[in-house]
Amino acid sequence: MVVKPNKKKFEGIARELIALRIANDLQDGSYVNLGIGIPTLVSNWIEGRDLVLQSEIGMLNTGPLAEGDNIDQDCINASCQPVTELPGCCYFSDCESFAMIRGRYMDVAVLGALQVSEKGDLAGWNNPDRGFPEHVGNIGGSMDLAVGAKKVIVAMEHVTTKGDFKIVKKCSYPVTAIGVVKLIATDLALIEVTDNGLVLKEVAPGLTAEDVQSVTEPKLIISPDLREIAL
Description:
Elements: H1 15-25, E1 31-34, E2 52-55, E3 59-65, E4 83-91, H2 94-102, E5 108-111, E6 115-117, E7 122-123, H3 142-148, E8 151-155, E9 167-168, E10 181-185, E11 189-194, E12 197-203, H4 209-214, E13 220-228
Parallel strand pairs: 1-2, 1-5, 5-8, 6-9, 8-10, 12-13
Antiparallel strand pairs: 2-3, 3-4, 6-7, 10-11, 11-12
């Protein structure tokens, strides 16, 4: 039997608040890489924190997104958005940047995703629904980050624009890395990936566990401490 998602549109939290929830989860003293999309917004929530952000293009200790007179197009993040410099900021080549990533010096990578499986498999570089061949896509540095970081957090909307599942039993899109995702933060929920399955830890204001389950393909384990998303 094919399970179809509930097409009801649930009101979740904004992209900026997904980023805030992830920032709250980061441990002080961590080295963190932020991927394209929602992940880059995490940089706006690190003021006063002991966190070092690394841009894979070769910038270490980046700050929040730049605005107005602070914009320098030579200082950009993975989404090519201008960012600010924090004290101690330094620059290096792509070779040194990926030596850091592949050498497992990144404590956390926050990445976007097209699909995440119940086993923590990550699919994020190719969307066959767009009509491209299976081998055509843009993997960038995500494959290195997915396997090089000590912890991978996915930040994404809970369902597609058509309302289809993005948290699935098995990825139908080409996989970037197998079994790497530890935490999924969406506009509707915070879900931990465990050996026993997906544990629903937090839900968006006004939603129930049943609401989140209706737009999640795998069976969720409801945490006994289930609460509203902590911001």
